Amino acid sequence: MSYFKNILKRKEASLIKKLPKEESIYRDTINQMKALNTYNPAFNRLAKIYAGMVWQYYDAVKAWEEDGSPYFTMTGSDSVKKHPALDQIEKLRKDILSYSTQLMLNPKSQKEQEAKKKEEISPFAQLLSQSGGGGSG
Question: Whole-model pTM?
């Protein structure tokens, strides 16, 4: 049991010194979307939720690190389970990944967007296909 107590007491230097404000995360998200040519004002609400989740993630990681970055915690019955903060961090990571895909901010969504653009038929090609090829035979 002393092995687990040592793990619980382990201290590491915090990787997150100062949390960015949620509003600055939101502005950075919008700027990233504009730089990637994926910005649409209709996505503002989704970007705001995404910014809130990213802020929660940073806050949870900082608190977890300040608590010594424990992987396990002792339960009342002297058994060991995953630390609740670590579980919250993992859930936030998954949610952030999902939202970043919806906002087209990660490599996976960028590749999908590029593939979709290649599949799109130009208006000129559509006109030719509707008119029977454009030739007068």
Answer: 0.70
